[in-house]
Design goal:
By secondary structure, the protein is an alpha+beta fold. Helices cover 49% and strands 19% of the residues.
Length: 241
């Protein structure tokens, strides 16, 4: 079995359509000296349909002052990350979320102030522009926190032994509900069912890194081990009443 870090690095490196790389380079060019990485994710990644669609990118910057100077944008990006901007390039349109490397790392972990970042990066993403190898490793390490965070939240609410796929679907259903998205009720399941083999592989690797102890049994089910303190902590931190 591949490690979670290996799976993430391989997935980030999968090729995309050249227009995506061109768009990413254009985004990075608007932040000279600050841009560290550009990540592509979301429904257009899954469908590979670009025309007439709203593409989704995350721009990772070294810090907000380097990105914006001493403007109010830096202050608000730090207080309520991320800032989100509309972009157009080569006939395509996108929304671009901006995070510092530090915030990107922290918001992919259980202590995050909101679910939005780790809920997205537990799903597939592509590293479509990067400034150097150090930035590439930092992006990969940040994303390594996303799947364990989502699955740990799901483990805290798991009522009985379930399959890895069921656990993913529970986790996504919880995150969609927490974000109050106007989505179809079957959307969380459809995200997983688009590529169940991917989620099984990532799930097996990620479950080794969840704070809540668990065991993957021979029949493929996930079994909770006695760990009431970690389970209660996960419930309080991520899903307050």
């Amino acid at each position: 079995m591949h490690s979670l870090q290996q799976l993430i690095a391989e997935e980030l490196g999968v090729a995309v359509q050249p227009r995506i790389n061109s768009f990413a380079a254009y985004i990075a060019a608007q932040y000279p000296g600050a841009a560290r990485a550009v990540l592509f994710y979301g429904s257009c990644l899954r469908s590979e349909e670009l025309e007439g669609q709203m593409l989704d990118f995350y721009l990772i910057v070294s810090d907000y002052e380097a990105a914006y100077g001493k403007s109010w944008l830096a202050k608000w990006n730090r207080r309520l990350p991320p800032n989100v901007f509309p972009f157009q390039h080569d006939g395509l349109v996108a929304k671009v979320a901006v995070l510092s490397e530090k915030d990107f790392h922290d918001l992919n972990r259980p202590g995050a102030s909101a679910v939005s970042v780790w809920a997205r990066f537990a799903q597939p993403a592509r590293l479509v522009w990067v400034s150097d190898d150090i930035a590439a490793r930092a992006a990969s390490m940040a994303i390594a926190g996303a799947a364990p965070t989502l699955l740990n939240a799901a483990l805290a609410h798991m009522a009985h032994d379930d399959s890895i796929i069921d656990l993913w679907e529970l986790g996504f259903a919880m995150t969609y509900s927490a974000e109050l998205r106007a989505e179809r009720s079957d959307r969380p399941a459809s995200v997983v069912q688009f590529d169940p083999d991917r989620y099984r592989a990532f799930g097996k690797a990620a479950l080794l890194h969840t704070p809540i102890l668990n065991e993957l049994r021979a029949d493929g089910s996930v079994h909770l081990l006695p760990d009431p303190e970690a389970r209660a902590l996960a419930e309080r931190e991520r899903w307050p009443a």
